[in-house]
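Researcher: Here's a chain I'd like modeled. Treat it as a single chain, no partners, no ligands.
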Amino acid sequence: MKIPNPYYISDYKLPLIEYFVFGLSVDCVVFGYHEGEIKVLLIQREAEPYRGHWALIGDLVEPEQNLHDASNNVLEKLTGLKNIFMKQFFTFGSLDRHPLGRVVTVGYFSLVKSISYHPIASSWAKSAEWFNINDLPELAFDHHTILLKGIETLKNEVRHKPIGFELLPSKFTLLDLQLLYEALLGYKFDKSNFRKKILEMNILKPLNEVKDNVSHRPAKLFKFDEKRYRQLEKEGFSFEL
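Model: Modeled as a single isolated chain. Structure tokens:
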């Protein structure tokens, strides 16, 4: 339906058509874990504004796209990566966040094994690289703010859901697990307290195997018992670190 201009309804301060002149984008915060290190995937922009700057993976949403499709499409378009589960986590709408006009962006985040994903820059992305979250370049737009919110969301997720197990091999030691959560949460656990708490959750399956190819005494291996966890979850169990 074509809306005449000017067109006033109730207490709108502007013609109604003005409220539809608005930009919408998505920005993807893709976290990667490998050998005790948390990284984030960034692209170097080959387009204005902020040409030459590093940025999160994002772009404007096409008129015919829904948000979920847009987040996956922009990730594939700029880095070649696909089939990554993305979760919406926050909306950013500061008035001056984009120099070309009013643009609201919806943030999506993901957590993957970085060694399993090898980005290749394409479209207007000059390059795509993994960066340690503690050693980042200056970011374009308000992407530093978006990244900090993504880190906050990640920490909250891993404290209350056992998503970290997906980043480990299918068989792992308690030390492997502790190092993972220390990297994700950004602080050290007391070794005995961590092991006691994890084992008391009763969501690990001990194996009659030990870690091989190590110079020290080999540690016992475990597996995450997802079936047991789902059963406990139905009974009211809450994962919390």
